[in-house]
Amino acid sequence: MVTTIGVLGAGQAGSVFARAAIRAGYDIVIANSRGPHTLRGLVEDLGPQARAATVIEAGEAADVAFLAFPYAPHHRLPAAALAGKIVIDNNNYMPWRDGSFPEVDAGAATVHELRQRQLPRSLVVKAFSHIQFHGRVPARTPEDSVPALVRLARPRGAADRTALVVSSDHADAVAFVTTLYDELGFDTVDDSPLAASWRSAPGTPMWAMSVDGQTRDRLRRNLEQARRPRSRPVV
Question: With a threshold of 0.85, does the pTM exceed it?
């Protein structure tokens, strides 16, 4: 039976991920905040394994969900539709883009733990957060115009295969993402739980090497070298 991934967010990350997942044999139900009628062209381009839906419909149809938008405290996510399901969060904490969250700044929680609170009955997993969904900047060759999720993919066992991080409080979610990474052409480094996910955030050693990827061993070493930024008190 084919697994259906509900992609919530149809921007660059959502559409590139959907295309890669379809190539790996998954069905896609994709949604955005403006309604399925705005996704007609994208769905036609993605092909018969994709269809558009409302956010609620996509959540209900999904076996697994992919959240392709940043965290915000005011978001009202389809928690009931996603209850009991694996929810992949590819978000990163970027205060210059999304504003500051006192708990994250104080080191009391990661942004992915905050997402888990929004979806208390789901199995939230941080994944695909340090792979680019656009071309390399600056480009060196024509191939660099291809999104890194495709450009860096390699067959299992390839000497230059790179690895991606997964973090979750749920073993089933880690196992699913590990399989998905492999199908898309990447090895996995498990950096669970969600409380540890700051080690793969912007500004860390591993992040500095994310543009062109890093092997599993190098990624592990870079995660170990991460140092949590000096915290600020919650006010």
Answer: yes
